[in-house]
Amino acid sequence: MPEAKLGVRLNIPYLQGTYVALNAIPDAYFLGDGPSCVFAKAEQIHGRHDLFSSLLSCGCDHRVQYTGVNVFTIAGNFEAGIMASMKRIAAWPGCGVFFMGSMPMCSIAGTDYERLLREACVDIKKPAFLLPRRSAVYGDWLDGYAAMLEVMASGMDLSGAAPRPGKVAVVGYLMDRNEGDHRGSVAELERMLGGLGLEAASIWLSGGPYESLREARHAEAVVSLPHGRQAGRVLARRLKVKLIEAELPFGLPASRRFIEQLGREMKRVKAARAFVESEAASASQLLRRGAAEAVKGRTFSFCGDPMYAVGFVEQISDLGGKMGSMLLIGGPHHLDAVVRDSLLAHLKTAFEPMTSEVEAGWGREDAIDLVVSNTMALKYTLGAKGAWLEFGFQSAYTHFLKDEPFLGFRGALSLLGRAANELRRGRYMGKTSPRDR
């Protein structure tokens, strides 16, 4: 049994992940059984990470609501208040789907949320889902996001399901905000599918309303991405269609494999080969001009979602760059053993390390040329010493008003171009490793 460590892990709470998913469904509303901290977590997304978020409202009809139960009232009979809140929120005209969840102290009180939810929504006739009680005691933000997708896949009304040739449902895209980086990545996924003669019946999630997610019932196959594996399995089983568990198309090599796998599985090998050859030729020429020389021989640090770390390492290595420390903001259980071990093979790499260890200097290296990090890890990894590119959830300082993908072939060029620019800026500002001085 591993030795228990005291302190706080460098990770993001489960509820934040559910809010990321909620934020990507504009007509979804959530009631959390708990105190005001349920509401406060939405403020980490609305207007801070996502300038286009609609989680909160000046009219107080916020898409995130809470019951107000606290340590002093938890022992009382609070069911009438919960029921009233459910009915009020579900009746709002903008509410297309309703979710209910609870904080740990409320979950262990044994409230029968299933019954309350059933009775509250019987007359309103809107889809309603209860987040699993296990969310109260374990899991991080990636578990929270995946759970939202899984409960929808399990309980969504799929009446009228009928597969249509060439239609696929993509399940497991991490739509962490409604800005141009994710709008562009969704458009790139659709373009890549189009290169094979396929069309997305629905992308979970992509910023569309709940009804757009139900269009998945017309898919002839479910393409599962890592952030929604179980949801993909459930949905494919319910629809009785082919399941394709694809890797995240993050970076040129992974994007090539993504297309090749879909080509094989969907019997479109010739189209896949032609598309990959065209994209690879164009990307190679652009990389030689814009990014390859800047990346070659430089050392990078990555801090963020472990599922993106895999593709990031591959991209940098392919261009002759080197990896330094990696702080992975998510539990190791999110990756299979082979991938997990490949990341841990790099020196100074850790999943959700203790903040006390990182603050003491773990993972910092003078030779790092560029830190690619979310905002959360910045203060632990960089300080004022090095060049920095903000990427991933949460990003408080970097925003995208126009579409600029980071997934797929075009996304790889965009992200590597940004990295090259930050490396050049770092050299100009004197924030690079000694060999450039």
Overview of this protein structure:
The chain has 437 residues and is an alpha/beta fold. Among the domains are: 14-152, Nitrogenase molybdenum iron protein domain (Rossmann fold, 3-Layer(aba) Sandwich), CATH 3.40.50.1980; 291-436, Nitrogenase molybdenum iron protein domain (Rossmann fold, 3-Layer(aba) Sandwich). 41% of the residues lie in helices and 14% in strands. The protein is built from 17 helices and 13 strands. The protein has helices spanning 14-23, 37-40, 79-90, 104-107, 113-120, 141-155, 180-194, 210-214, 229-239, 252-265, 269-290, 292-295, 306-318, 337-344, 355-359, 375-381, 408-429, and strands at 28-33, 64-66, 97-102, 128-130, 167-171, 199-204, 221-224, 242-245, 299-304, 322-328, 349-351, 370-373, 387-390. The chain has a five-stranded parallel β-sheet with strand order 11-10-9-12-13, with helices on both faces. Strands 2-1-3-4 form a four-stranded parallel β-sheet, with helices on both faces. A four-stranded parallel β-sheet has the order 6-5-7-8, with helices on both faces. α3 (79-90) crosses α5 (113-120), α6 runs parallel beside α9 and α7 (180-194) packs antiparallel against α17. The longest helix is centred in the middle third of the chain and has 22 residues, at 269-290. It is globular and about 65 Å long. The model has no long low-confidence stretch (mean pLDDT 88).
